[in-house]
Design brief:
CATH class: Alpha Beta
Helix content: 10-25%
Distance between the termini: 33 Å
Structural class: alpha+beta
CATH topology: HIT family, subunit A
Radius of gyration: 14 Å
Number of domains: 1
Shape: globular
Number of strands: 5
Largest sheet: 5 strands, antiparallel
Strand order of the largest sheet: 1-2-3-5-4
């Protein structure tokens, strides 16, 4: 089975600017940032997308979101605000079939997002 780009980053086979890691998740800077701060938070365990999540994944999903909030605060985004984005499927903007949360901040976000 082919491993995703994010699995290879987590295995340190592809370089990335990693800013946080623990036993469950890894966070790194996006290589094509859409905001002054653009960080991806991924689960270490492959999970293709939200639509593939099961009830047993609830602790991991909660940890992913709480970690994203913690990283946003560490980046100084908690006072001005930030956006968390999880894309699901091709029409949702998913480009890598490995669940990931985008942290976007450092500028005013527009609505609707696009």
């Amino acid at each position: 089975m082919n491993r995703t780009l994010f699995e290879k980053i987590a295995a340190r086979e592809i370089p990335a600017q990693i800013i946080y890691e623990d036993d469950s998740v890894l966070a790194f800077r996006d290589i094509a940032p859409q905001a002054p701060v653009h960080i991806l938070v991924i689960p270490r365990r492959p999970l293709a997308r939200m639509a593939a999540a099961q009830p047993a994944d609830q602790p991991l999903l909660g940890h992913l979101l709480l970690t994203a909030a913690k990283i946003a605060a560490q980046q100084g985004l908690d006072s001005s605000g930030y956006r968390l984005v999880i894309n699901n499927g091709p029409d949702g903007g998913e480009s890598v079939p490995h669940l990931h949360c985008h942290i976007l901040g450092g500028r005013k976000m527009q609505w609707p997002p696009g």
